[in-house]
Every structure is written in structure tokens, then in C-alpha cells.
Design brief:
Layout: H1 2-8, H2 15-49, H3 52-100, H4 104-107, H5 112-119, H6 121-131, H7 134-154, H8 156-159, H9 161-203, H10 205-210, H11 214-239, H12 242-266, H13 272-314, E1 334-341, E2 352-359, E3 364-369, H14 375-380, E4 390-395, E5 398-399, H15 405-411, E6 412-415, E7 424-425, H16 426-430, H17 439-448, H18 452-455, E8 465-466, H19 475-487, E9 493-497, H20 505-515, E10 522-526, E11 538-543, E12 546-551, H21 553-559, H22 561-579
Parallel strand pairs: 3-10, 3-11, 6-9, 9-10
Antiparallel strand pairs: 1-2, 1-4, 4-5, 7-8, 11-12
Helix pairs in contact: 1-13, 2-3, 2-7, 2-13, 3-6, 5-6, 5-9, 6-13, 7-13, 9-11, 9-12, 9-13, 12-13, 17-19, 21-22
């Protein structure tokens, strides 16, 4: 229950609506409970003595109670809806804000589909707990207590029937809750899997079509969907036992009360109106018990969702700022001092081992190596997308951990291997780099990235709409726009993580030439093509997470066997292709 308590502590500014909704539903229940007493008086006094005036007065009073019950019920619905929807919006916003603070390490702990489910389905479950659960949660105990008191007041002997019914209902409810409590957690995980399959299929729809794997993907989705269906059926198979069990108990109680009540009337110990009013309280008490049982079932499901939401809040960001962080990065000098890194603390092997390099500010550095040798891992430590497991990474002469994280990432621009563009105009995408950039600054950045040539040809220019992911552009165009976007940050260090792989060599050469005209910016280029790094001031060759060699193009070509092998294989391939 601590998970639910923590989640509902986020009611915040909607706490007033929440309290008002409880008060109004309590008032509604109280007005309803007065009606059976008035009805008993009408039968036993008004009808028995044929006093029309008395019947009219009591009838008007009953109508007023019914009207007040209706009004308070409507007010409850209004305030409960405000509380639930406001709470859902607030908790969703806070959860999204928390996710934004995650490092890559934190994000590795969750599937993307799971985070989506937690922010949608799980929060909807919590909203429903307020909208659909607050009324029975408040009304049930109020009607149960007041109903029992009034039933005992009317006839204490008949009220003993509840001493038999209540334990039976409690045992049934305990069995159902015990069975379905763990099932709700599995049900939400099945929902995660369905979301994962959908997300993967839609994200890779072009690959699915290209490889004609539509039927296979349908089978994968069918399996995930059937698993969700099976778990849903099992869960609600036990949940629905609640209704017939309570109906059986309720009708048994009514039969017993009619039997004993009829005997009391026959013996002269009870009046007909009294029995009629007592039966009304019986029905209300049984209904209140049913409400309470439904609340327990709802809270059981809410508990599973609350636990999943709290897991997002409990995730501690692995990247934090110091109390007095440095906010100014003096230059683009980079130093790796005996750095080792692995993605998970319990991993047996390091992705990087004992990296020790010095990159002066303004230099151009190339990094090459085989797939999986640690190139991307190396550069991700510079803007603190990950933290080094051991050793120190320095930028501008200071450990990266000493900087204010936002200031560091503004000073270190990285063009990722996977190009990410968002739905919107080219202008809006570029302004991710600088929200206040003028048109001149936008065109200057596009010019350096050699992207101005195709943007100018578009009818709408900077206001051309890009589809989600930039699918209406070629791979090379997307890469150049991403480079321009990063340049708008005016970073002291810019990292190209194989981000010109889709650009032809002539255009790549022009981009590099224009970048070299910015002497204060340190350029780090990860590439598979050796022509992309030949011009660099120094070239790092990585092998299995270690630095194999460092040098210029000429020195490495003269001495290093790996570099020679890469160079000759690529140059010969290029010559052979040219000859063809």
C-alpha cells in the first residue's frame, strides 16, 4: 500500500477537489439512508392510520432527500473528474520530466515500450481508481456503518443475520484478491510486450516490406496479443467471481430476513413498514459490501500500476551535478587519463580499457577501428552520455564531472550515428541547436554542412515540412541537416560519430574543409572510410577497446600494419571500382 500512498501524494493542487468529492459522496449516502426511515413511517403511521396529511409531509421530505442526494451526487462527479484527470496529467508530466533526467545507463534499465505503457496505461489505471473507485471507496464504508447502526436500531435481532453473512463475504473476497494480485503485474508486462512489437514493426516498416516479412511480423504480434488475451482472461476469470458470490450471499440474507421477519410480524413483535425499511437497509448494506469488495479488486490492480510508476521515480540518475559545478568550458582540449569503461557494473568485460590520450584544442582527430572496438563508447564519455567506470575524462583541463551538465553538453556537440529529425519544419529542427538563431545563422550553419544547396531548391526553403524521422529526405541530406543543427550550438568540441557515411566523398571533403576554417573548435571524426580521416592532425586506431596506435596518416601508413591493411584494402577497392 505504500506504493499507492506515494502515488496519491502527487495529487498536489488537485487535493481540494479530491476532498470535496469525498465530502459530497458521503453527503449523498447520508441522504439516501434517511429515505428508508421516512418510508417506514409512511407505511406504519400514515397508511396504517390513513393520515393523508402525514403521508404528504413525509413524501415531500423524501423527495427533498432524493433531490439533495442527486445534487450532491452530481457535485461529486464534477469534483472527482477534475481530481482524477488533473492528477493523471500531473503524474504523467512528472514521470516524463523524470525520464528526461535519465542518463543512457538509466534508460538501459527500461524497455522503451515499457516506459510508454507506464506513462499511458498504468496512469489511466490510477485515474480510473479515482473516478470509479472514490465513490464506492467512500460510499461503501459510510453506508455500511450507518446502515448497520440504523438496522440494529430498527430490529437488533434481525441484524444478527449479518454476523453470519459478513465472514463468508470476507473469505470470498480474500480468496479472489489473493489469486489476482500477482496476475495484474503479469498483465501489464504483457501489455509492454504488445507495445514493443507494435513499436518495432512501425519503426522498421520499410525493412519489413523490403524483406517481405509481413506474415512473420503478424505471427509475432499474434503471439504477443494472444498472451495478453490469455492473461486477461485468467485474471478476470477470478475477478468476476466477486459478483455471483455476493449475489448468492445477498439473496440468502434476504430469504433469512423475510423468514424471521415474517415470524416476528406474525408474533406481533414487528410491523410491516419496519420490515420493509429493514429490507432497504439490508440491500444497502449488501451493496456497500459489494462496493468495498470492488474497491479492493480495483486497488489490487492499481497497486501493480503504482509499483511500476514508482519504479520510474525511484530510478536514481547516474549523472548528477556537483553542488557548485563549473559553468564555463574554457576551450576544446580533451584528455583521457587511464580511462576504462563498461556499460553495466556486473559486466565481465570492459568496452574500453586504459585509454590514455591528449587532444589539444582546435585539433582534428580521426578514430578508426573494426565494428565493436569501442569508438562510439569512447566519444560518448566526453559529453557525459555515460560516465567512465575508472580513470578521468577532462575537457578544457577539468574533469567532466566538475562541469554543470547542461553547460558541458552545450560545449560538446555530437552528431550521432543514428540521425534523428522530428516532425516539423527544417527551421524548427535546426533551432534545436539554437532556439534563438537568426535566418543568417541558420544559413551559415547549412552552408558549412553543405546542406544549403538542397534546402534552397525546396519550394518552402527553411519552412519545408519534414515528416517524422525526416523520411522525405535522403540519408545524406538528413546527415547534413544534423551536422548543421549541431554547429548552431557553436560547440568547442564537435564529434562526428560516423555521421557522414551517407554523404559522397566530394561533399564530405567540402564539409571538412569548411570545418577546418574554425580553428577554435576541436573536431573528432569516427569513420569507416579512411579518406574521412586522412587529413586529421592525429589518427587513433582502436582494437578491442584498447588504443592500438596513434599518429598521422603518413606515420601510420609507414609503420602500422592494421592501418596499412585498411588503407590498401579501401584504396584497391576504390581503384578496382573505378576501373570497372
Amino acid at each position: 500500500m505504500n506504493d499507492l500512498k506515494r502515488i496519491f501524494s502527487h495529487l498536489g493542487k488537485f487535493r481540494k477537489e479530491f476532498i470535496f468529492s469525498i465530502l459530497f459522496v458521503a453527503a449523498e449516502s447520508a441522504f439516501e439512508l434517511v429515505i428508508p426511515i421516512i418510508m417506514a413511517d409512511i407505511i406504519d403511521v400514515g397508511v396504517a392510520k390513513k393520515e393523508i396529511h402525514y403521508i404528504l409531509i413525509k413524501g415531500v421530505l423524501m423527495g427533498i432527500c432524493a433531490l439533495l442526494s442527486l445534487v450532491t451526487g452530481l457535485l461529486y462527479a464534477k469534483f472527482a473528474a477534475r481530481a482524477a484527470l488533473g492528477f493523471g496529467s500531473y503524474i504523467r508530466e512528472k514521470e516524463y520530466e523524470k525520464i528526461q533526467s535519465y542518463s543512457f545507463t538509466n534508460l538501459d534499465h527500461f524497455e522503451t515500450s515499457s516506459l510508454i505503457t507506464r506513462m499511458t496505461t498504468d496512469i489511466t489505471v490510477m485515474q480510473n481508481a479515482i473516478i470509479n473507485g472514490l465513490r464506492p471507496m467512500t460510499r461503501g464504508p459510510v453506508m455500511l456503518v450507518l446502515g448497520l447502526v440504523l438496522a440494529v436500531y430498527m430490529n437488533a435481532k434481525l441484524a444478527l443475520v449479518f454476523l453470519v453473512c459478513t465472514p463468508i463475504l470476507g473469505l470470498i473476497l480474500g480468496f479472489i484478491v489473493h489469486k489476482i494480485a500477482p496476475m495484474y503485474g503479469k498483465l501489464q508486462k504483457s501489455m509492454d510486450m504488445v507495445n514493443l512489437v507494435i513499436q518495432e514493426n512501425l519503426g522498421a516498416i520499410r525493412a519489413v516490406k523490403a524483406f517481405v516479412r509481413g506474415e512473420y511480423e503478424e505471427h509475432v504480434f499474434e503471439t504477443a496479443n494472444e498472451t495478453l488475451m490469455d492473461r486477461s482472461q485468467k485474471t478476470f476469470h477470478y475477478a468476476v467471481l466477486n459478483l455471483p458470490a455476493f449475489q448468492f450471499t445477498m439473496y440468502t440474507a434476504i430469504i433469512l430476513i423475510l423468514w424471521f421477519g415474517g415470524n416476528f410480524i406474525h408474533a406481533g413483535d414487528m410491523q410491516v413498514g419496519e420490515l420493509t425499511g429493514f429490507l432497504s437497509y439490508v440491500l444497502q448494506i449488501i451493496n456497500s459490501l459489494m462496493m468495498i469488495s470492488n474497491v479492493f479488486l480495483m486497488l489490487t490492480r492499481s497497486l501493480a500500476s503504482a509499483k511500476r510508476i514508482n519504479e520510474v521515480f525511484d530510478e536514481t540518475s547516474s549523472l548528477t551535478d556537483r553542488k557548485t559545478p563549473c559553468r564555463k568550458i574554457p576551450n576544446g582540449q580533451i584528455d583521457f587519463l587511464h580511462v576504462s569503461f563498461k556499460y553495466k557494473a556486473h559486466a565481465e568485460e570492459y568496452a574500453l580499457s586504459d585509454i590514455d590520450i591528449h587532444i589539444p584544442s582546435g585539433q582534428t582527430v580521426g578514430i578508426i577501428g573494426g565494428t565493436g572496438c569501442g569508438k562510439s563508447s569512447l566519444v560518448q564519455l566526453i559529453p557525459r552520455l555515460y560516465d567512465a567506470t575508472s580513470g578521468h575524462v577532462l575537457v578544457g583541463g577539468k574533469d567532466v564531472k566538475e562541469y554543470y551538465l547542461k553547460a558541458l553538453r552545450d560545449a560538446v556537440g555530437i552528431v550521432l550515428q543514428k540521425n534523428v529529425l522530428f516532425f516539423g519544419t527544417i527551421r524548427e529542427n535546426l533551432q534545436w541547436g539554437n532556439a534563438h538563431a537568426s535566418d543568417k545563422e541558420l544559413w551559415d550553419a547549412l552552408s558549412i554542412a553543405c546542406a544549403d544547396e538542397f534546402v534552397k531548391q525546396m519550394p518552402e526553403g527553411l519552412d519545408t515540412i519534414l515528416e517524422q524521422g525526416g523520411v522525405n529526405l535522403s540519408g545524406g541530406q538528413r546527415q547534413r541537416l544534423c551536422i548543421a543543427r549541431t554547429l548552431l550550438k557553436h560547440p568547442k568540441v564537435i564529434i562526428f560519430d560516423d555521421s557522414t557515411s551517407a554523404v559522397d566523398t566530394a561533399t564530405e571533403s567540402r564539409i571538412q574543409k569548411r570545418l577546418s576554417a574554425i580553428p577554435w573548435m576541436t573536431k573528432i571524426i569516427i569513420a569507416q572510410r579512411i579518406t574521412s580521416v586522412m587529413h586529421a592532425d592525429q589518427i587513433l586506431i582502436l582494437e578491442d577497446g584498447h588504443i592500438h596506435a596513434v599518429g598521422t596518416h603518413q606515420s601510420l601508413l609507414a609503420k602500422d600494419e592494421i592501418y596499412q591493411e585498411i588503407y590498401h584494402s579501401q584504396m584497391k577497392g576504390g581503384m578496382a571500382h573505378a576501373a570497372d
